[in-house]
Design brief:
heterodimer, A: 463 residues, alpha/beta, Transferase(Phosphotransferase), domain 1, Rossmann fold, 3 domains, 5-stranded antiparallel β-sheet, 16 helices, 16 strands, B: 79 residues, mainly alpha, elongated, disordered C terminus
Chain lengths: 463, 79
């Protein structure tokens, strides 16, 4: 039995893994809210409307922590992702999901005790709230306790990404409990900062935070006197206002280059068809449950792997590409088992949080059954200056099988990367590739394309 | 539109009462700031919810008088 490292902050309970199954222990402080929500039918309602992850109460086994009062079993999620990996619309959808749940709960006298982006995950069908214990009884006349968190986790990053720069989404890696509101507000152009919703919930909100934090007020006044109050109707109004503000934040892409990707691609249709067919055959042959498509671009090959039933984590460094794929999947009725994530593969997601153990690195969330690295390694060697042996070792730690594309040195794309570099680059040739990858993998199959590129199917050597 | 109404009323409230710069809650942590600003926003937001409810009832009332379909639908929803 292992305790999930991401759930230690919650005094109400924790997540446990036992024999590959996911359980939740509920501790004494969480019992009252849990029983109230269960008996009021709140969980059934949220699960029935696909807003909350399902659970079943199970007997408490001897491996559960001593203080466990109730034990729940949850379905296992295919992959845990973090907000620093999400595209813009995924974060926005997660925000709206929180507000939808709040609206449902407030009508029944409940609310969300927190509004953390980490509590939303993609389960292979849709985004869902995964923290059952976030549901609590509303404290009468109290302001929403998670309002500040909601603004820091959703409103601030969305506004900064849409109105300053989409790349600011990577600030999540530093601010793992949400963006400081003054930071986000200060990043906005004046015209956007003065928009009613953003002015209220970001700019004035951050001013109020700063004023409440003034040192000269320490020791003054009675903390219990004059506590701010929010009526039920006020809370509904607040949720409406937040929803309108979130929905109004739209990222207008300045670059349309990725939509014309198929036109600017340097190789021919015949090769594309052959490559697609080969990827399809490999997936059919290996029947992987989990595929990681690294350097996925707009997810062309991720979708092929997904169509054969694999769950595909589709990773690309360009937030416009992941956004494109996310919207494509959101619109699709048939393909749901793809999770697009933004990540610079020369600097993949590290372990973060308390003791660097709270949020897992990419590698710790593996291994995948199959890793796709199509038209990727020449970028890593020639643009990111990562030596070939290190790339081979890295892939060796990520998955059991690897389908890797070698792009030859005389390929137009490689020539372009080397245009201003002369001879000053890391060794890059087919011999170097085969030798370095051969140290980590066995080559089990290969196919050559007309344009000189070669696809190698590799299996990791037994240690 | 609702947001801009809330916002305008908020600004007017601030100007009239000059309350905002002197919010008298002497707390220490940023969470308190979130509570205070939220309470202020909620007062106005509550009013806009009330106006919304009143407006729907008004429409429903006239709908009933004039026997329009809309009024009947609202009645059904209210029940």
């Amino acid at each position: 039995m292992t305790t999930n490292s991401g759930s230690f902050r919650d005094p109400f309970g924790c997540i446990l893994t036992k024999d590959g199954e996911i359980y939740r222990s509920i501790f004494p402080p969480g019992v009252e809210d849990f029983k109230a929500a269960r008996d009021a039918g709140v969980y059934d309602k949220l699960i029935g409307t696909n807003l909350l992850i399902s659970h079943q109460e199970v007997a408490i086994e001897n491996w559960a922590p001593e203080e466990t009062v109730y034990c729940l079993k949850h379905p296992r999620l295919p992959f845990i992702s973090y907000p620093w990996e999400w595209c813009f619309s995924m974060l926005k959808d997660a925000a709206i999901l929180h507000l939808e749940i709040m609206e449902e709960l407030v009508a029944d006298g409940f609310w969300l005790r927190d509004a953390s982006a980490f509590n939303i995950q993609y389960d292979g069908e849709r985004l869902r709230l995964i923290d059952t214990l976030s549901v609590g009884q509303r404290i009468a006349d109290s302001p929403w306790v998670a309002y500040g968190q909601f603004c820091g986790h959703f409103l601030a990053p969305l506004a900064a990404a849409a109105y300053r720069d989409i790349r600011t989404l990577s600030l999540w890696r530093n601010y793992i409990d949400g963006y400081p509101l003054d930071l986000a507000s200060g990043m906005l152009p004046l015209g956007k900062r003065l928009r009613p919703g953003l002015l209220m919930h970001l700019a004035l909100h951050s001013r109020a935070q700063i004023m409440a934090d003034r040192k000269e007020d320490i020791g003054k006044g009675d903390r219990s006197a004059g506590k701010p109050k929010v009526s039920d109707r006020g809370l509904i109004g607040l949720i409406n206002s937040l929803r309108k503000t979130v929905k109004g934040i739209n990222w207008k892409r300045s670059s349309e280059i990725w939509e014309g990707y198929q036109e600017i691609r340097t190789y021919q249709d015949e090769d594309v068809a052959k490559k697609s067919e080969y990827v399809d055959n490999v997936v059919k042959r290996l029947e992987p449950e989990m595929v990681w498509d690294l350097g996925a671009n707009t997810g062309e090959f991720s979708l092929i792997a997904a169509s054969e039933g694999a769950f595909v984590v589709s990773i690309d460094g360009d937030p416009a590409c992941t956004e494109f794929l996310y919207q494509h999947i959101s619109r699709s009725e048939s393909i749901k088992n793809v999770l697009p994530l933004t990540m610079d593969l020369a600097n993949p997601s590290p372990a973060l949080g308390w003791d660097s153990r709270e949020r897992l690195s990419l590698r710790e969330r593996g291994p995948a059954d199959l890793v796709l690295a199509l038209a990727l390694i020449h970028h890593l060697v020639l643009s990111a200056y990562v030596p070939m042996p290190l790339i081979a070792q890295w892939f060796g730690g990520l998955g059991n099988h690897l389908l890797v594309e070698f792009v030859p040195p005389d390929d137009p794309m490689v020539k372009k990367l080397l245009a201003n570099r002369g001879e000053e680059h890391l060794p890059y040739s087919l011999d170097v590739f085969q030798s370095d990858f051969g140290n980590v993998f066995n080559f089990i199959d290969q196919i050559s394309l007309k344009n000189g590129r070669i696809l190698f199917l590799c299996e990791r050597k037994k240690k | 539109m609702k947001n801009s109404i809330i916002f305008k009323v908020l600004i007017i409230m601030m100007i009239i009462s000059n309350a905002y710069p002197r919010l008298a809650y002497a707390y220490l942590d940023p969470a308190t700031g979130s509570m205070v600003i939220q309470a202020v926003i909620a007062v106005v937001a509550a009013a806009s919810v009330s106006i919304g409810i009143f407006w729907r009832r008004l429409k429903s009332f006239f709908g009933r008088i004039f026997g329009s379909k809309e009024g009947k639908e609202h009645d059904a929803n209210d029940n």
